[in-house]
Amino acid sequence: MARLILFNKPYEVLSQFTDAKSPSPRATLSDFIDVPGVYPAGRLDRDSEGLLLLTDDGGLQARIADPKFKLPKTYLVQVEGEPDEAALAALRKGVTLKDGMTRPAEVRRIDAPELWPRNPPVRFRKSVPDCWIELTIREGRNRQVRRMTAAVGHPTLRLVRWRIGSWTLDGMAPGTWQERAVTGRLP
Questions:
Q1: CA distance linking residue 91 with residue 36, whole number of Å
Q2: In the chain, at which end, N or C, are there fewer CB atoms within 10 A of the end residue's CB?
Q3: Do 96 and 110 sit in the same domain of this protein?
Q4: 25 and 90: one domain?
Q5: Where is each Pseudouridine synthase RsuA/RluA-like domain found (predicted)?
Q6: pLDDT tens across 137-185, in order?
Q7: Cα–Cα dist 1/22, whole Å
Q8: Which residue among the candidates 19, 31, 34, 45 is catalytic per the annotation?
């Protein structure tokens, strides 16, 4: 049976187990997870937080990470400014990035979620409002959510991946992980 680990990746932690090429040590998965033989199913940038799945099953890893399976990934995104309906509609339709058009996303404005404090905190500016959106995509290009929000004029300030399929961070503190049973079908 495949192993599946849900990990709440803290801010500034690399989505890999080693960082041998860096002149100064950076936090990696090995600082939090001591389970042999598991590897990340996808990536989460160092400056992003939230759900990262790890498994010892290559087939499961591909079904989670490969965009052809269209597994939804939901993000809680704090953006600069307050997106109007036109900006949200553009995200729903798909936006043009340097590497092509994105697939349509599901997006809605939300109240500020009750999340753990980020260290360091997001820079607060009195003159520039911010708000939160919930954004669900079914692909996974490099820094895609950040590039999408910037393309509609609202740069990302904080990015937390909350859900992949039906797996969620609910009740998990940053830096903690849980093992889950895997059945034949993805949630």
A1: 39
A2: N
A3: yes
A4: no
A5: 4-151
A6: 999 888 999 999 999 999 999 999 999 999 999 999 999 999 987 766 6
A7: 36
A8: 45
